Structures are given as structure tokens and as C-alpha cells.
Amino acid sequence: MADLKSRLHGRLLLAEDEGYTQARRILNPSFDKYPALVVQPTGVADLQTAVSFARENDGLLVAVKCGGHSHSGKSTCDRGMQIDLSLFRDVRVDPYARTGRVTGGSLLGQLDHEAMAHELVVTMGTVSHTGVGGLVTGGGFGRLGRHFGLAIDNLLSVDVVTADGELVHASPTENPDLFWGVRGGGGNFGIVTSFEFRLHPMKRQVLGGQIMFPISKARDVLNLYGEYSPEQPDELQLDLVMIAPPGGPEMAGFGVCYSGEANKADAALAPVLGLGTPMMNSIGAMDYVALQRSGDTDDPRAVAGYMKSGFVTEMPKGLVDALVENFEGHPDRTTICVFQQSGGKIARVSPDATAFAQRDAMANMLPSVGWAFGSNPDPHIAWCREFWTHLEPFTHGFYANDDDGEASAENVASNYQVNLERLTDVKNRYDPKNLFRLNANIVPTV
Question: Which of 184, 185, 167, 186 has the alpha carbon at shortest distance from 51?
């Protein structure tokens, strides 16, 4: 251990060291794990050293933490090595070339902030303290996905520390197999140390906010979503929300981001506004960076949570019935079902152009429950699992970033669809011993 510490410029933390407790924690306090050691790299050389140490020590379990948003706790581990990238954050924007370079531990809010200073943007999640590394390698949904495509659709190149400790540059012309794989294959192939994005011109002011109706209107909200979602303009992002907070009121409605020409916004939103008188309507002109921060949580570790995930390609009557008839609040939890919208430019990319295959999805359906940390989680998790049994038959795969750790290896493999064979080939080449396995894991075959 002393030899490892001497070779690091960053920090090596053991259980007795100051900073260890903070480093090992992630946003969901349900996962209270204790790595044997935590490495906090400050640069690529530290990452190479850490990965080589893990490989040379019997394939020591490796967890990589960027923003700590892993719903299934995969950015921490027991008795292994956690690589905490919180000291490896930097964003550089070239406003003339319209590109952004982002180090692997950076948070999406940093890129939003720097790019928007030049009225440039790229699709980047919906919570500003999300890690870019985890978000992007899984695909990279966000409020601008329909307008500009997924984050991976705007990648120009990456640098990756692979399982052999080597730094590999990947782009459409250099190591294209690895470049293809990291765009949707998650953390299966290594740790991305640098992302280069294509940025797009966009005005800072967008139309954003929420419009919510009584839960009694849920069927109308769901039916409208099914009918209008495929037809709406790319510039309009509608994320459907059903929510039952502790004590109510229960509501159904939409999170809105309209990033197109202001004089066309009313026409785009007319079907939504035609649903009737809302209980709440906060939609208005606002700064895009402020909208990106609007879902941030000041103290996320005060609330524990559990979530399921699956893509839907349509909103049939059976799914609407299942949602309306089985959605149920509880005085001791927040119950939510969100549909994160897809389509638009996301759908105009071939399923095999990147490792992300679910280009035909209408939305990513995410039922979840949250409860005060320290209270009994069992009834809330049990309810969400039961709710999911009614919804899952209408899904077609899941978002790799939302892997809950409960799916069988066969189900995880099938999720990659037409891309599984090629992904396995990439895994065999760059991580044949499966060092990077805390993810929606592609099992090597060599």
C-alpha cells in the first residue's frame, strides 16, 4: 500500500483517514459500503497507476465514482478499490471550433456553465451535479436530446484508460471499435479520462418549468403523451410525471423544455394547455443553466430511494390502465413515475451506429420511491417492485445507466440487442478479465 501511495500525485485514503467517509458515500444512502481503499486521482497518470494496481492484485473489485448518482450503488463497493474522480474535474470550451473538452470526473453543470457563456450547448442530463463520465458512456439523455441527439451522438473523441493501464485515444478514425463501444456500453471498457464534444449554438433563454394537473386527469395526460409525443417538434422536450408526495396533492403532468424559436412555443404547447386548468403551471422564459439546476437536491443523502427502468415504444391502453389503476401514494414516501422522452434526433440514428441500441424508444419509463433515510424501506421497495410487475411487460430493454443490479446476466446481455456480439468483441479486446464489472456488465468470452 505504501508503494501505491508513493506513486500517486493524488490521495490514497484508508478507512482511518480523514476524507475517507465522505469519499465512499454516494447520493443514495441505502448503499453504505466500505472500500478497502479509495484513490482520488488528479490526472491520467494516477488513473493508470490505480487501474494497474487493481489488475495486478487479483483483479481487485473496482468502483468508479464521478457524481455518485448510481441508483444501484455501483459507484462504491465493499472491500475493493473505489476510484473517486472528484479531484479530476476540468472543462475547456473552444467557442470558435464549437467544441468542449471535459475530464472524466467533471459534473455536467460545469459544461453547461462554460458552454452557455458562449451560447453553446450539448445534451447533458437533467441534474447539474451528475458526473459526465457515467452519464455519457451510458448514452446521455437530457432536456435537449430530441433537439441535438444524445450526448454520445455529439462525441468527437475520447481518451480511455483501459484494463491494462494504457491510455488509448479513440475516435471515428483511431481505435474506432473502442469509440463505438464507449458510446452506450457504459463503463465496461475502461475509465474515460477525456471527452471531446461537438457543441451547438443555442440562446440562453428557453421556455421551461412544469405544468401539473390533478391525478384524476392522469389518463388524459397519458393518452395525450402517447398521441402527441411522436409528433411534436424536436425543440420541445416533454417529460411526463406522475407524483404522489407525502401528504399530497397527487398530480400528473409534464416537465417542459422548449429550446426553439420563441414565436413557435405557443403552438408547440397548445395540446398540453388544452388539457384544462392546471393545479400548477411554472412554465416561463428562463435561463437554460438555471433550468438544468432546477432539479438539484441540496441534501440528497437525507432521502433514500429505489427505482426501476424500462424503455417504451408506445403508450397502449394496457399501459395506461396499468399506470392509472396501480399508481398509489403513501404518507411515508414520495412515489413518482417519470417518462423521460426520446425520439426526435435520437431516433434518427441507426441502432448499430453506436453501442446504444434503443433508438426506437418513445421514452424511458422510471417508477421510483423515496423515503426518509433511517426509516423502514421494505414496504416502499416492495410496492415499487409490485408496481413494476404491471409495467414491465410493456417495456423493451432498459437504460444502461439505470441498471438496478437485479436483472439476470441474460437479461442484461439481451438489453444490448443487435449490438451484443460486437460489444462482446470490444470487451474481449480491452477488458478480457472483466476488471470493470460494476456496470450493466458485458461478460467477456475469452
Answer: 167
